[in-house]
UniProtKB/TrEMBL annotation:
Record InterPro entries: AAA+_ATPase (IPR003593), ABC2_TM (IPR013525), ABC_transporter-like_ATP-bd (IPR003439), ABCG_dom (IPR043926), P-loop_NTPase (IPR027417), PDR_assoc (IPR013581)
Domain (ABC transporter): residue spans on this chain: 120-371
Name of one Pfam family that matches: ABC2_membrane_7
Protein name per Swiss-Prot or TrEMBL: Probable ATP-dependent transporter ycf16
Entry's localization field: Membrane
Keyword annotations: ATP-binding, Membrane, Nucleotide-binding, Transmembrane, Transmembrane helix, Transport
SUPFAM superfamilies per record: P-loop containing nucleoside triphosphate hydrolases
Source domain of life: Eukaryota
A Gene Ontology molecular function term of the record: ABC-type transporter activity
Transmembrane segments: 466-484, 496-516, 537-567, 573-595, 602-622, 736-757
Basic and acidic residues compositional bias, start-end: 1-16, 96-108
Naturally occurring in which organism (per UniProt): Cyanidioschyzon merolae (strain NIES-3377 / 10D) (Unicellular red alga)
Keyword Secreted in record: no
């Protein structure tokens, strides 16, 4: 099996080149997969213009003496200390505890976000530190880790589960949302400003977080338009997009939908490895100088992993520095890297340096220091993990040599530290990064691109928009048929008012309907915000605009069915429609606000289940305002449902004539003051009843003479209903303004929530 250790050689070079394995493998795979080499080509003149505009800016990134602590509950820490005493192995148990906490953190680190911009020469130097402080309820996850990444080279972060690989990556990329970091991080020898460095850095998540309803081409073009330097011509962004699609081997998938991780390739979306290459392509579109990747090949088969490694190699070949966490790499994938940072449990370094030809630099280091030499049938990645005790239980590990201590005392460690200091000195003042912030007009341009993408995404989501159209038709027909052509007599009076109340149900249902799509996009939004793709206000504006056309169409369908089937006054339809549209826009804004505020969709559904009854209780329908306890008056006026309900009640009921059919009249004895004529009672719609039997049947005393008793119709004008519910007949347009005000208020609240709240735990 000696041939399994042979790497393809670079053209014109007789030496073995570990990184060229990806170039060779992918070029062969590309022909095998598609039957022929890609026919895509870029006009050299156009490409020359593109590279002139997108000239890379050299960048050297260094970090030294950094310590990272994560908070630990004190009770849990006490239990951990008790275990240490019982086992009488304080040092080993402490490392095991670190491993457990770090393993939990690795599971949580799946969703986060990225970082941004210009390209080439980048060198990173690090000295990352960490320890455990049980008294303060903190646990140290990284301990005295150092290293550097250089342009055109791939640095692999490897180690057993719980070694702190992803923790180190997050610390270097400023992705930590909790814990405490101490030390110094520099860019070109100066203290780092991550708000500035974001424009020169890319971060590829372990999870592939994209807007699922966009095509591959649209995703890369959107990233290029929003993340290239402000002022970059759109023609250059389009040309660069085509270049990236070819480099990332995504041209054949350019018009396929991205889909989500839950979608299968059979549904017409791209494959899992194509989605991973798209994640890299989106970061490549920023033309950054430094890239961080978190386990880009995890979950992929060998062939897919090679495709992804070719994409990563393309980043480095663009004069970029690349740092990637790799977990259990295959022989071919591991051979594509140039350098290695190997860590053991407890966040300590056991090796840093070049892999060497066929990984001989790394394997020979361990052999020189007492490890069993590697044989020709062993994957170097498996060999190094076995040597340092990866996957071995703590009892056996305690009997092994501590390779972290061996590394600290080695000549290789001293040489690496010397090179680190040299890089810091030579980079100081040598390079200058320039970035011109986008103007207000360019910011609006980005908001325009976000809005267009959101509108297209909504159009391609029939399960969401078609469902609410079906809801509008179904609910409208149900209400309209049930209350078809209601008579305007006193018996149907309650039904007449109830339909007005039900006419706002469509908007209420939209609160819960909007939760699903908004929660699904939230992770992609966090990734794009962290990378500086756009401002949160742009996304808040986009999701608000995208809802408007579908809300209007749904409201038109619903109101047409309900309004005319029930038989409301035709002259009031315009107002009825306007109020329904505004109220529906308000409810969708409320749903989007909940999605920004709450941690999960399950919690959102629960909150909506509590909010809807509360809105109904204080709307003034179930409990008219005169009957509401005085100390709750503020809840009545703070309820948006109350203002919408008052508006439609006044529009549909005010000055509408009602009548009493036989059997609906009320009777009372003829008062002596009426002088034998009930109409003398004034304008209260009193009528003379001449039939003594009718009066007697109603239990009313019969008077002598032609008039036996008096009768009256309880409700003859809709204004009486308005007064009974404590509503204001002259506030109809004030109600419109109030609902519009609530809509604007919740849009502002949604923007602030997107700006300041992040449901991330890294």
């Amino acid at each position: 099996m000696a041939t399994s250790r042979e790497y393809p050689r670079r053209h014109g070079d007789d030496s073995v080149n570990p990184r060229s394995i990806s170039e060779y493998s992918i070029s062969q795979e590309q022909v095998t997969s598609f039957g022929q080499a890609s026919s895509f080509s870029i006009d050299p003149a156009a490409l020359h213009v593109e590279r002139a505009v997108l000239e890379p800016q050299p960048l050297i990134f260094t970090w030294k003496g950094i310590s990272y602590w994560v908070p630990v509950p004190k009770l849990k820490e006490k239990r951990s200390l008790q275990k240490l005493v019982r086992r009488k192995k304080v040092k080993e148990s402490k490392a095991a505890t670190v491993k457990e906490v770090e393993a939990e953190r690795d599971l949580e680190s799946g969703s986060s976000t990225e970082a941004p911009q210009p390209p080439p020469q980048t060198e990173q130097v690090a000295h990352v530190d960490a320890h455990s402080d049980a008294e303060d309820g903190e646990l140290q996850l990284l301990y005295d880790v150092f290293g550097f990444a250089q342009p055109r080279r791939l640095l692999a972060l490897c180690g057993a589960s719980g070694a702190g690989k992803s923790t180190l990556l997050d610390v270097l990329a400023n992705r930590k949302t909790k814990g405490r970091i101490a030390g110094e991080i520099c860019v070109n020898g100066e203290p780092v400003d991550y708000s500035f460095l974001t424009h020169f850095m890319g971060y590829v998540e372990q999870r592939d977080l994209h807007i699922s309803k966009q095509t591959v081409h649209e995703a890369v073009l959107f990233a290029a338009r929003t993340r290239l330097p402000p002022g970059t011509p759109d023609s250059v962004a389009k040309q660069f997009t085509e270049y990236i699609l070819e480099i990332m081997n995504l041209s054949v998938d350019r018009n396929r939908l991205v889909g989500s991780e839950a979608d299968s390739e059979a549904s017409g979306v791209i494959s899992s490895d194509a989605r991973k290459r798209l994640s890299i392509a989106v970061e490549y579109a920023a033309n950054a100088s430094l890239y961080f990747l978190d386990e880009p090949t995890s979950g992929l088969d060998a062939r897919s992993a090679l495709r992804v490694m070719r994409a990563i190699r393309a980043l480095a070949d663009n004069d970029c520095a690349v740092v990637s966490v790799i977990h259990q790499p295959s022989f071919e994938v591991f051979g594509a890297f140039d350098d290695l940072l190997l860590m053991r449990s407890g966040g300590r370094t056991v090796y840093f340096g070049e892999l060497g030809d066929a990984c001989t630099s790394m394997t020979s280091y361990f052999a020189r220091n007492g490890a069993e030499p590697i044989d020709d049938m062993t994957n170097p990645a498996d060999y190094m993990l076995r040597v340092i005790g990866g996957g071995i239980d703590s009892k056996r590990k305690a009997q092994m040599r501590d390779w972290a201590d061996i590394w600290q005392d080695s000549q290789e460690c001293k040489a690496a530290l010397e090179k680190l200091e040299e890089l810091k000195k030579t980079s100081r003042g040598r390079y200058t990064l320039t970035y011109k912030p986008p103007t207000r007009r360019q910011q609006w341009r980005r908001a325009y691109y976000v809005t267009i993408r959101q509108l297209i995404s909504y159009w391609r989501t029939p399960t969401y928009n078609f469902s609410r159209m079906v809801l509008a038709v179904a609910l409208g027909l149900m209400i309209g048929l049930f209350f078809l052509k209601l008579p305007r007599n006193n018996t149907a009076l309650d039904s007449y008012v109830s339909v007005v109340y039900l006419s706002l149900l469509y908007g209420v249902f939209l609160i819960q309907n909007v939760l699903g799509p908004t929660f699904q996009e939230r992770a992609a939004f966090y990734r794009e915000i962290a990378s500086g793709t756009y401002k949160p206000i742009a996304y808040a504006f986009a999701i608000g605009i995208a809802e408007i056309p579908y809300t209007i169409v749904g409201s038109v369908i619903f109101t047409l069915l309900v309004f005319f089937m029930v038989g409301y006054p035709a002259a009031q339809y315009g107002y009825f429609l306007l109020m329904n549209i505004l109220f529906s826009l308000f409810t969708t804004s409320l749903g989007q606000l909940l999605a920004a505020l709450l941690s999960s969709q399950v919690v959102g559904v629960m909150i909506v289940g509590m909010l809807i009854p509360l809105m109904n209780v204080f709307s003034g329908f179930l409990q008219p305002y005169p009957d509401i306890p005085h100390w709750l008056w503020w809840a009545y006026y703070a309820d948006p449902y109350r203002w919408a309900l008052e508006g439609v009640v006044v529009a549909c009921v005010d000055n509408v004539a009602f009548h009493c059919d036989p059997g609906e009249f009320r009777f009372f004895p003829l008062p002596p003051s009426f002088n034998g004529d009930c109409s003398d009672g004034g304008t209260l719609n009193y009528y003379n009843e001449t039939s003594a039997s009718v009066c007697a049947a109603a239990g009313v005393t019969v008077a002598n003479g032609s008039v036996a008793c008096c009768r009256y119709c309880p409700v003859t004008n809709g204004r009486q209903i308005i007064e009974e519910f404590g509503l204001h007949a002259n506030w109809k347009w004030i109600d419109i303004g109030a609902v519009a005000g609530f809509y604007a208020l919740f849009r502002i609240a949604n923007t602030l929530a997107l700006l300041y709240i992040r449901h991330l735990n890294r």
